[in-house]
Recover the amino acids of this structure.
């Protein structure tokens, strides 16, 4: 097939950052954001990188992030989630695909992402070995509805189109 489409999703509960709680620093798409709440997670909890990883693996039909990087494996405790995207990108390259385009939606009430989106896009493009023009990133809120809207969680959705080279 000349094209493959994948969808990725991730969500993390947000709690006060240690030592005040179990949250880790809030990292989204490789950017550490100033925020009193952070993800409760096994790795660094980067929802964007986790969803990108799942989207690429899904497009390839290769399962999900938890199969490659189990959350009960101590090697991944606090790990930089860039490791996960690099591994998915390696699988993509080995299978003869490149990113056609990738669309990321980050959903959180706070912090606002507008001033960081360019860096986030560049980080994702670098890890996937593609041009920044092939990556889009949007920040949305949940309009104060449910755990995300109340600031108790952050989530990400990603859709990717892979092209055979």
């Amino acid at each position: 097939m000349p094209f493959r489409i994948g969808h990725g999703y991730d969500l993390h509960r947000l709690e006060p950052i240690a030592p005040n709680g179990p949250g880790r620093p809030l990292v989204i798409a490789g950017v550490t954001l100033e925020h009193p709440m952070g993800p409760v997670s096994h790795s660094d909890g980067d929802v964007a990188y986790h969803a990108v990883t799942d989207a690429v693996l899904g497009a390839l039909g290769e399962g999900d992030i938890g199969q490659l990087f189990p959350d009960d494996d101590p090697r991944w405790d606090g790990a930089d989630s860039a490791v996960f995207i690099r591994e998915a990108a390696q699988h993509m390259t080995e299978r003869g695909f490149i990113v056609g385009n990738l669309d990321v939606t980050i959903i959180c009430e706070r912090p606002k992402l507008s001033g960081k989106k360019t860096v986030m896009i560049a980080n994702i493009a670098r890890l996937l070995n593609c041009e920044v023009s092939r990556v889009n990133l949007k920040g949305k809120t949940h309009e104060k509805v449910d755990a995300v809207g109340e600031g108790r969680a952050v989530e990400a959705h990603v859709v990717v189109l892979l092209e055979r080279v």
Notes: The chain has one domain: 3-164. The helical segments are 47-60, 65-68, 82-94, 117-128, 146-149. The beta strands are 3-16, 26-28, 31-33, 37-39, 97-107, 135-140, 153-164.
